[in-house]
Request: fold
Amino acid sequence: MNLITCISLCVLLVSGATAQADRKYFNDKKAPDERKDLAAIQTAIQEALPQARAATVCVLLDEGSGSGVIVSPEGLILTAAHVSGGVGKKVTVVLEDGTELKAVTLGLVAETDAAMIQIIEKGSYPFIEIDRAETTRLGDWVFALGHSGGLDKERGSVVRLGRLVRIANSTFQSDCTLIGGDSGGPLFDMNGKLIGIHSRVGAQLQLNMHVPMSQFITNWDGMLAREFIGEGPFAEKPQKGSGFLGLATEPRKEGGLRVTKVGEKSPAQEAGILEGDVIFKLNETVLENREQMQALLKEMAKGDEITLETTRQGQPKNHTFNLGAR
Amino acid sequence: MRANFTILFILPLLYLPVAGQQSLDSAYRTTGIEVVAAFEAERQILQTSSAVILDGRKEAGYGVVISADGYILTKASEVTKVAKLSVTVDEKNYTDAKVLLVDTIWDVALVKIAAEGLVPVVYAATSAVPQGTWVMANGATTRKKRRLLAGIVSAKIREIPASGGAVLGVVLKTVKKLLEVQEVGEKSGAFEAGLQKGDVILKIEGKPIKKVEEIAELLKTRKEGSTVKVTYRRKKLENTVDVRLAARAELFDDQQNRNDQMSGDFSARRSGFPRVMQHDVLGSSQVVGGPLLELGGKCIGMNIARANRAENYSIPVEDLKEIAARMMKAAAE
Reply:
């Protein structure tokens, strides 16, 4: 935690000195005081909006929905850790035009609420640029996009305008009002560059928190490599051995493990496994005895995906499902 | 549906100052006085052409001044709750305010005060402006001075269907093959029409009804705020009444979801509008009912609901003009 904070702070301090050629002039005024300032803010947001909106996605999960934003033509998405919820989970993302795409969660930073998702369907996706130089300063005008309250195809994603009202070590605060469903969605500067990811709100309308890009840049390679970085509070680290399958087996002379019992309402039962089925492989590993199967399960956690290759009365049948909680 | 449950962390603690952080003075925030000062021309319009709807001394909402002789449009479901109605326009308070008509589809009421020489709003040419366009609306008020808040158009113009469907507002049970009323929602059209526990529903719109599913099917395409003819039997007597349809989710408070808790404050009626434009002007449900202005001060809509902390709805100017003309005509007849 300390290391991460320290690095990001250093980056912030260094980049603060960099002069930015494309910085909008109105950001350097304490407040707009002429008609042309208001017009310039409006023009900036309207010019940036089409691309920003095209890159903003809704992330559909079993237990709800969040938002995210595409940052590469190959479909790399930045989102919040409490949206992705874990590493290697299958999710569905929805583009502004309604296209649904399969995706998988990559790594996350549990302490600051940063995470990545990768679209796994091949394609060339609309994306936005990240403000890598971290040019944003206190008081800058910003805008937020996100699927407030969940996906609404008639409405589309919702845009809100505000200013950056607080900059802390690992958090931006803006007065763009956020609500459930916006989590993981993008905060942009007035050039349409990504500066933050929506994370959390307080009771007051002014309390809207975003994860700054520095938190993503610092942990970029680790997240790409599907690492679970840090401990809570935004994501719970999977505990090995916490996964629950819910069946009992006995070895067969002719190979494989015969299912002798399937627990009521267990993940195995819900996946359709029946007593008498014979399991040959677990996640592509050939099973020779019960101990081996138990050892494999011990390395897995709740929510992990499991594939069992079985036969039922000689007919091959594959079951893919998620482990429950022990 | 998935959309019912969405994700966002709520801060578990008060935000504590941390070393190394910078904070923007509240005067320079989006709702701050220094920022709002840039919209003084538009604030002047709110000063003369928006009305404050008062319940005694308490603000109950705002209104749109649509004629020099004292006709005002406001949010019906709020103004009809007011016990001691008066209206302030500019610096003057009018205690003779009367609700003349209500349009239940749009949730708009026409209010009349005995005034002359008021400055009605000037309608904007179109509501079809790009998202990101500045809009302004009433903020809080003092006795003499209107305040302004600014935001932007933030989503597509669209219909907001009745949340949970348009319903009569009764709980029914099949008793001896008859549909008997078990419970009447306090805020429902059924309650207003006088339906009671024990009444037996016989027909809706003249069509005999035997099952609850048949009612759902019949009401599926109906709008919130519209009425249906309900024929019922009470103690061997048959009667037919007009029942106003309401959004199911707005009749029963237990339907609050996590986002509602997060929002804190929202309009009691916030669904079932034929067409709305959406904006992000911050504020409370008490600032609904007034005009939505564009830069330059023309009226681009009328604020009709605060849906939640991030979403506000306005009636687009085209519809507002039509509603105003229709209600003024009806009031004259």
In short: Residues 166-250 of chain B form a domain with the Pdz3 Domain fold (CATH 2.30.42.10). Residues 1-5, 12-18 of chain B have pLDDT under 50 and may be disordered. Chain B touches chain A through 55 residues (CB under 8 Å).
